[in-house]
Amino acid sequence: MAGQHQIDLDELLEGQWMEKSRQRARLRLVDSLESKEGVTVVGGDIFTEEGRLTEAFSFYYARLVACSSEDERFVARWAQAEAERAERILTSDKDNLERIARTYISEISKTIEAGPTATRPGLRFNQKSARQIQDGLLWKIGLSDYIEICPKITGSRWRLSNCKVVNGQVILFNEQQYSSSAKLARLLREKIKRDIEQEALKKMNDITTDLAVRLAEPVGMIRNLMANKASEAIALVGADENDWPPCMRKIVAELENGVNVNHFGRLFLASMSATLALPKESCVGFFNGAPDFDESTTTYQVNHIYEHAYTPSGCGKLKLNHNCPVLPGDDRLCDISWMDHPLKYIRATQRWKAKNQQVEQTTRQDDEPISGETSVDSTQNNPVESNGNNQNN
Ligand code: SF4
Fold first, then answer.
1. CA dist 365 to 145, 362, 381, Å?
2. Hey, how many other C-beta atoms are within 10 angstroms of the C-beta on 133?
């Protein structure tokens, strides 16, 4: 493509023609940090030659910036966001799914099951609804391919023991909530992510000083965004155990006492721990007392939750799932009308503490002698007394 359209590095970095690609690349990079669903599909035109050029070269430009950032965490995040975008496109791109799948998976076949089912009327188009669209295809992939990919995906439907294997192939059954094609796209996402990340890490070594200087502006933008994200996290990381909301403390205490906390509560605790940047080992340790504790399974699940940075559930869902222990009057903060999320609870506690500290500091400063007053009589040990004496004068 680059040869055909005579696009070289200079054109990509500074050329007028590639301006659109660079703009789109910036959006892709910001999306990978800001959006929970990865790089947005909207805005990317892949149906015209010009649109395809913009999309393709915006990816290359974004990769150059990611490599120049020399930040492996960012590279991993960007690769994840790009792979999520690819999954969304492939889930609904019946024509190209097979072609792409064959480049990543060594053994794959399909059968036609039944006539395609139309999208349910009124169904909002998002990744979840896209997964429900049945196209009448039933995919099967080789056992070795499946074993390589599936450990990276959580959820019981992906466990090999829950899958049907016929003649060395795993059948990706159509489910009402998850079509066979969508399952194939989900598996491909893992492969795509790994490839993007590995290639970017390799290319990091090829970034010369000259290239780094030319990419300083977009790299600076990424570093600033990363720093902002980090400071948001640090503010919460400062939260000590006393700042935790009652729901979190209750779940930790119950697990400690061997109570079988429900799935919702466990997911909440792990996602809160990830948001508060508690060490993963501490989070695994919370589950130590659970009746069904298995260290390797818990570590795997905790790793997954930390990697995907799930947002912890709000009070409404916690109440619905019997994970909120407070009744009206039990906790003043929980009683406040705007208290609808445990993270708000922590922020409110921290703000309150900070205010108290400020008041304490001001009081201390007021109590301290003003410079010069002690020199009036350096033998006096009590600054309050000293202050008082001067006032009397
Ligand atoms: S009201 Fe919200 S923050 Fe308070 S304990 Fe219940 S779920 Fe947690």
1. 68, 5, 17
2. 19
The closest residue, in CA terms, to atom 2 on ligand 1 is 315
Q: 139, 161 in Cβ contact below 8 A?
A: no
* Judgement on whether residues 359 and 248 belong to the same structural domain of the protein: yes
Q: Which of 248, 327, 331 for mutating ligand 1's site (highest number of atoms within 8 Å of CB)?
A: 331
Residues 269 and 339 reside in one and the same domain: yes
* 148 and 180 share one domain: yes
Average pLDDT for the chain:
81
pLDDT digits (tens, 9 = 90+) for 89-128: 898 888 889 999 999 999 999 888 765 554 444 444 456 6
Q: Which domain holds residue 207?
A: 9-87+193-224
In a domain, 389, yes or no: no
Query: Residues with Cβ within 6 A of ligand 1?
Result: 245-247, 315, 318, 324, 326, 334, 339, 342, 345
Q: Whose C-alpha lies nearest to ligand 1, atom 1?
A: 334
Sign for the pseudo-dihedral over CA of 62, 63, 66, 70: negative
**What does the pLDDT look like over 255-301, one tens digit per residue?**
887 788 899 999 999 999 998 888 888 888 888 878 777 888 899 99
